[in-house]
Structures are given as structure tokens and as C-alpha cells.
Amino acid sequence: MPSDANRLHPLSAVTLALQRGLTGLSMPFFVVMILSTIFDGVDIDWIFMLAPVGFVVGIGYGIAYYYRFTYAITSRTLDVTSGVFSRRSREIPYRRIQNVDVSQGVLYRIFGLAVVSLETAGGGETEATLNFVSEAEAERLRAEIRRQTARADDDDASSDERAASASGSASASGVDESTRHERSHPDRRPTLLFELEPTELLVYALTSFRWGAAVFPIALVIFLTSADSGSGLVPAFILEIARPVGGPASLDGAAVGSLLVLIAVTALQWSVATYVASAIYTVANYYGFRLGRAGADFVYERGLIQRYSGSIPVDKVQSVTITENPLQRLVGYAGLWVETAGYGPESSGGSQSAIPLAETDRIYRFAENLTDVETPRFQRPPTLARRRYLVRYSAIAAIVVAVAFGLAQGTGLERWYLAVAVFVAVPLAAHLKYVNLGYHVGEEHLVIRSGFWNRRTTVIPYYRIQTVSTRRSIFQRRLGLASLAVDTASSRTFSWGTPTVPDLELETARELHGIGRERLQSAVRERARSDETGLSVDFT
Amino acid sequence: METLHPRIRLLWIARGALAAVVLGVVLTAIDQWQVTVPVVAIGGVVALGLVTGTGYALRLYQVWQFELQDDALYLERGVVTFVETAVPFVRVQHVDTQFGPIERVLGLSSVVVYTAGSRNADVRIPGLTPERARTLQNTLRELAVESEADDAV
Q1: How many CA atoms lie within 13 A of A138 on its CB side?
Q2: How far is the CA of A403 from the CAs of A311, A421, A422, B59, B100, in angstroms?
Q3: Are residues A269 and A401 in the same domain?
Q4: Interface touch B83/A471, C-beta < 8 Å
Q5: What are the start-end ranges of the E strands in A332-451?
Q6: Domains contained in chain A, number
Q7: Basic and acidic residues bias located where (chain A) (predicted)?
């Protein structure tokens, strides 16, 4: 039953026309400007004739784009047809859709509009973006996609069942029945699984440190310096604040020592400003976070000014990760992330947060319920690994001292030998790195933990393994150690790296390598018999 | 375990030599426009680059091995970091054979195996004769189809 082709919201014709119109208006400026410097025949006055023409053409193009952009929900695929001159028609099978995300900026919210993006596993970018439709239409699309996906799955399941009963081994377990029952009623209002309490939001804002927020202070400083120019490269207030503790009066002819003080004070200021900016960012992005469940999908919504919402199909989840930084560990909180193959390397995976922050034991319980993993009993790599980190960090400390010595030679820096103090931190750093390592070889999952600053505990079902690698660097070979890298299709690994158990004994690494491969095979065979997802939707 | 075709050493040595020559050109450019670099130093660096590159190529050829096991394609490779990788047949998305201009001159071909994995998602087996590459591609394709999983991603 192919339904009618839909268009975007009529208002988007206006914005598209204006956008393209502006592009059309500005294009003659650049072209004529560049050409007039090269060719004598080109007159700069042409701009005034060409710019209005460009504007009109741009508006025409924008309107044409609106009329040439259609999308339709059919029984098997979502079709998007676009392009004014070169047409592109794209059919996305429902089964391949990973995430459906809806975002609404401030203006969008005022006018009741929304941008819908669909993610699939292939390619490096969003598969289809509907920019923009009305709020109601976004909701309808989401429900419709969910309904169609469930239907497609049901068709498959029933045909599977026929095949199974034909071969005389039909066995529909109670679990399967119940999930299918849920899936056939996906239109119900989502059941609430988790809601971020104000205290949790506050703790999250205060304990998470986003390095991305470091650009805000820079932007602010650039803005301020352009407002009161004349202070040169470094704004006056930076020098002012550092002066009482030994900073230089001006940059010209300042001693190295006082310059270092200036750098330290500025870095401190910057960190504080970044911290504040990151806290504000966190509150704005995660205010009103709610996770629910609709059919076999997780649905979330969050955001104070810009609203984000979306759905993540449970059977697309590749792995589950618990994150805790030292501050969060101190106050006993942790976060939970679910990872799909949906996002390209460019787009941020921020919306994959299943639970931004909650008490640690609750989070671990959620993770266990969600993946059905047993409570992990972590094992550690051999103590030889710690020795390795000791050597590694000593080498880094030696480089720091060497740089200080080099500075002392080039400039008049006195007491460069104080830099030796960094060696004090070496044993502590090596120990902290070591004690935060852990792995657990479960029945159906491999659990990997590592990191002190950003401790991540990742639960990887053997079923989701793509490749297994044992890696040995020259240093590891001397000590008889090896690292085991387990790759999944999760797109999080672009920023987090492939889940790796570092510095195992070679024998253990090879054994784990074998276990991973074996259990993948048995999981695949098991899946072929029954079609359960292995993940539980009601994990809270 | 199967090793690569010996001629792949030529390709890798050539690659190393090219890197050494580029290094030499860069040093000469620095000598021209920035600070004077003694000719002996440039020659020494290039010679060292050539020797290291050749040694690296020979060693890489020695360690590179692969095998079709029951459930997975298994590879061993790497000079600095030695890597043993298993690519389960169920996870193979598609298989390519490729050959560049230099490989063509040497009569060699590569097989590239793609998985849905996010990093190093493609595994390349270089230095195969075109016939071997084709049979390997066909075998891998059959094994992948045979052991097809329901839904990986």
C-alpha cells in the first residue's frame, strides 16, 4: 500500500528560498570581485546587475527544491526523492534503520517544527534528513516507522516459524510470544523507564568535564578583545590577574619564570571557565531527560532550549558502556550508554546516552538487566603490565625534564631541575592505570574495563563481534604480553577506540581470542534457531 | 599457513625507497631555503632510509601469513606491532580483488575483505597472484554466504 508522497512543511519552502536566495545574492560578489582583478574587461559595477539576478535565481531554486523533495512511507521502505536537476531517489528498508532522531531549535519550537534524521549503518553520514516538518508530522513519522518495522519483523518471524514447523522443530518460547505481543502494539504511549531527577542533572553538570566546552572561553576572549582593542595579542585582564602572583607586567622582555607563572594562571582560569561552560552546556542539553520504551524501541527526549528526541531500536544495540570519571566515582554515580552502528564519524553520538547519570549500583543493575550479563567478576592483567606503565610514564617524565633543560639552555630559566618532581607522579599514575584495568569473560558477554580519568566498562555480547585481533608491540613481545582488540560495528569506536584488553599474558590473550571466536559461532547458531534479540527492553 | 608471493618484496622495497627519496628531497629543499644541511648528512639519511626500508620490507614478507580456518579468515602480520586477526566468515560483508598500476606490472593482486566493524573494517591481503586472488575471493564469498547470520547490524 504505497501511501501518497509527502512534502516538507510549507514554511521550509520560505526558509529554503531565503537561504538559496542569499547564496545566489552573494555568489556574484565573489565571482565578479575575483574576475575583475584578473581580467580588465570585467567591471566591478556588474555586481549590482548580477546580484539581484542571483537572488531571484536562488529563490527560484529554493522553491523548486521544496517542490522536488518528497518522501513516502511504503510497506517495506521509506522513500526519499530529492534534487532539482539531478534527481536522487533513495529507498531505505525499515529493517536497516538504526536511529530516528528529532531535533528542535528554539525557533523551531516556537513555530512547532522539527528536523527528523534517519541513521543507517552504511556510509559516513546521515541517511536521510527531513529539514523540516511539523511537530505532529515528526511524531506521526516516528510512530509509522516503528509500526512498519514491527510489521516487517513480524512477517519475517512468521515466515521463519513456518519454515521451522515445516522442518518439525517449532518451539516458540514464552519470551518470544511476549515480545511479539509488545511489537504488535507499538502505538501505545511509551512506558517511562528512567527520568533524570534535578539532583542527578546537577551532579551530572558538576561532575562531567567536556573538553569541547574549551572553545567557549576562547570565543569569549576573542569577543572581548575585539570590543576593547589596543591591548595587543593578550587581553589586559589576563595579565592583570597573573601579576599579584608573579606574572609579568607586559609580554615584552618578560623573564621566563614570570611567563611560566602567567601560563599557569591563564591555564587555571581557562579550566575554570571551561568547567562553568561545560556545566551550563550539560544542563541545557540534558534538562528533562526521559528514557522510555515503545514497542521494541528505546525512546528518549532531552534539552532545555533545543529539544532532542529520538528512538533507538533495541535489537540494533551493539554494546553497552558504563562511564565514570574520578569525581563521579567519588560521589558514587555513573552513566550508561548504548551504542549502535548508526552514526557516522562526523556526527556526534551524544544522543546514544541511555542514562546520563544515576547511582552506580543502579547503573550496574540496569546494565545487567539490559544485556542479561552476570555480575562481572573482574580479572586483571598480570602485574608485569604495571611495570610496563611504570617504564612508559618514566619515559614521559624524562621527556618533560629534558624539555625543561632545553628551555634552561635557550633562555635564562633557573632551577630547571625542579621539573624532576614529575617523577613523583610516575608510580602513582602507573598504579592507577593498572588498578582500573579489568576484564570478565562471561557466558555470553565479554566485559572490558579501563581508564582512570574516563573509566569505561564495556559489555560486548560475543554475538556482536566483528573481528578479533591479538596485538603485540616490540615492547610487549619482550615481556611476553599481548593486547586483545575486539571490534564491533558500534560507531562509538570512532571516538572511543576499539575495545581492548591491554597487556595480557600471551597465552591468556590467545585463549580469549579463541573463546571470542567460538562463542560468536555458537551464538550465531543459537540465533538461527530462535529469534530473540538477547536484550531486554525493560531494563530499569 | 599460506605466505605471500615473493615478488611483493619488490613492491614494498620500492615503497620504502620512494619514502627515502622523498625524505632526501625534503632535506635538499631545507638545505636550499632554510639552513645548510651537509651533503654527507643528506646522503647518510637517504642511505639509512633505504636500508631500513629494505629490512622492513624483507621482515614484513617473512611474518605475513594467512589461512582459511573452519570459521574465520586468520591473518598474521606486522613488524613493529605483530597482529593476529581473525575475521569470522559470518561477519564478511563483501570481498574485493584490487590491483594498482605497480601491482599490475609485478603481476600481483590484493584481496580486500570488508566487515561492518568500525575501525580497520577492511582487511587487505596483498601479494597474491591474480588466479589465487580470484579463487580466494570466490572461496570467501561462498563461505560468507554459507554461514550468513540473520542480522549483524
Answers
A1: 26
A2: 51, 14, 12, 35, 45
A3: no
A4: yes
A5: 333-339, 353-359, 438-441, 445-450
A6: 3
A7: 177-190
Residue A238 identity: I
Kindly identify which residue of chain B lies nearest to residue A121, measuring between CA atoms.
B153
Among A314-323, A326-335, A494-503, B91-100, the range scoring the smallest mean pLDDT is A494-503
Distance from CA of B1 to the nearest CA of A (A): 17
CA gap A526, B5 in Å, rounded: 40
A467, A472, A493 ranked by CB distance to B81: nearest = A472
Cell of A481: 604480553
DSSP category for residue A383: T
A388 and A280 together in one domain: no
CB-CB under 8 Å, A477 with B85: no
Contacts of A477 in chain B (CB under 8 A): 82
Q: Give the residue from chain A lying closest to B69, CA to CA.
A: A517
Q: In this structure, is the dihedral angle defined by the CA atoms of residues A8, A13, A18 and A19, taken in order, positive or negative? A: positive
Per-residue exposure over A423-443, b if at least 16 CB sit within 10 Å of its own CB, e if not? eeebeebbeebbebbbbbbbe
Inter-chain touch A489–B118, beta carbons under 8 Å: yes
Question: What 8-state DSSP symbol labels residue B85?
Answer: E
- The verdict on residue A458 lying in a domain is yes
Same domain for A393 and A523, yes or no, is yes
Out of A471, A517, A528, the one facing B72 most closely (by C-beta) is A517
Q: Which residue of B has its CA nearest to A160?
A: B150
Is residue A304 included in any domain, yes or no? no
- Asked whether residue A145 is assigned to any structural domain, the reply reads no
Question: Domain range for residue A42?
Answer: 1-68
> Going along A161-219, which residue ranges are E strands?
191-195
The answer to whether the CB atoms of B116 and A473 lie below 8 A apart is: no
Contact: A497, B117; criterion CB under 8 Å: no
Grid cell for residue A59: 529563490
Q: Considering the domain boundaries, does residue A174 fall inside one?
A: no
Q: Per-residue DSSP letters for A467-491?
A: EEEEEE-HHHHHHTEEEEEEE-S-T
Domain boundary among A284, A314, A340: A284
- The alpha-carbon gap from B117 to the nearest alpha carbon of chain A, in Å, equals 4
Residue A177 CA from chain centroid, whole number: 34
Q: Judge: A471–B88 Cβ closer than 8 Å, yes or no.
A: no
Alpha-carbon distance A150 to A94, whole Å?
9
Most B CBs within 10 A among A120, A347, A466, A495, hence the mutation to make, goes to A466
Q: Which residues of A touch B (CB under 8 A)?
A: 95, 98, 121, 315-316, 318, 341, 464-474, 477, 487-494, 497-498, 513, 517, 520-521, 524, 527-528, 531
C-alpha B62/C-alpha A508 separation (Å) is 25
The alpha carbon of residue A473 is apart from the nearest alpha carbon of chain B, in Å, by: 4
Q: Tens digit of pLDDT per residue, chain B (153 long)? A: 899 999 999 999 999 999 999 999 998 888 888 788 788 888 999 999 999 999 999 999 999 999 999 899 999 999 999 999 999 998 888 888 888 888 888 999 999 998 887 655 678 999 999 999 999 999 998 888 887 655 555
Q: What is the pLDDT of residue A169?
A: 37
Contacts of B150 in chain A (CB under 8 A): 527-528, 531
- How many Å apart are CA A251 and CA A282, to the nearest integer? 36
How is domain B67-146 classified at the architecture level of CATH?
Roll (2.30)
Residues in CB range of A226: below 8 A, 6 or more apart = none
SS3 content of chain B, % helix, strand, coil (to 5): 50, 25, 25
Domain map of chain B by residue range? 2-62, 67-146
User: Cα dist. A395→A37, A294, A430, B50 in Å?
Assistant: 56, 53, 12, 29
Cell numbers describing residue A105: 531549535
